[in-house]
Design a protein that fits this description.
This protein is an alpha/beta fold. The protein is built from nine helices and seven strands, in the order ββαβαβαβαβαβαααα.
């Protein structure tokens, strides 16, 4: 499903977003989600690069990963908020943590919002819309979640080792690893089951994958 076919930014200009993450695959996911929609993208691979870019070019919003080498997202966000020489912009944290104390720590840095990984693209778009003066043009209901009958999927024939590997990949939001594990599971799945599972992964519906693993195998190591 091509994002540019289903959603556009209604805005006089293309808002400029800085995406900050040390993993290329995560940058690629964000890039492929945001650029076709109409956002202009800059990239940084650690907090030091992010603070330098904040000072050197006009930006509208930052999507900040929190765990990175060199300088993490907490320190980078704190430094940005302490910088009185440049206009302040919204910062949205991207975090895999579900712990309440981490959420409190995020907000303590001056970050405006957070989106938990793995995220639905609608969740990300809604967070960006909340903090920028933009709106979206939707093409019918095509941007809605892919309709999935997960009740039709049964993974009981899948070896435990592969199921555990899929659970681990989903738990760490490792998109490429999840697809690779699913390819290894292909011989144990019906064609329709494989297609539905692939759609779930590609649309980041990781909670549904956990539900399927739990329902059909009982233990997901999550």
């Amino acid at each position: 499903e091509a994002v540019q076919d289903v959603i556009l930014v209604a805005h006089e200009q293309h808002p400029k977003l800085l995406i900050v993450d040390d993993k290329e695959e995560n940058l690629q996911v964000l890039r492929e989600l945001l650029q076709p929609v109409g956002f202009t993208i800059s990239e940084a691979r650690n907090g030091k690069e992010a603070t330098d870019l904040f000072k050197s070019q006009p930006l509208d919003l930052i999507l900040m990963d929190m765990r990175m080498p060199v300088m993490d997202g907490y320190e980078a966000s704190t430094k940005i908020r302490e910088d009185k020489d440049h206009p302040q912009i919204p910062i949205i944290a991207l975090t895999a943590s579900a712990f309440e104390e981490d959420k409190e720590r995020i907000y303590a840095t001056g970050i405006d919002d957070y989106v938990r990984k793995p995220f639905q693209r609608q969740t990300l778009f809604s967070a960006i819309k909340k903090h920028l003066n933009i709106d979206y043009i939707y093409d019918d209901d095509a941007v809605a979640d892919i309709p999935i009958k997960e009740s039709d999927i049964n993974l009981s024939a899948v070896p435990t080792m592969l199921a555990d590997s899929l659970a681990e990949a989903v738990n760490t939001a490792d998109f490429n690893e999840a697809l690779e594990v699913l390819d290894n599971m292909k011989e144990f799945l019906a064609a329709g089951e494989f297609s539905l599972m692939k759609s779930l992964i590609e649309s980041f519906q990781y909670e549904k994958i956990f539900e399927i693993l739990s329902r059909t195998l009982g233990n997901t190591n999550s």
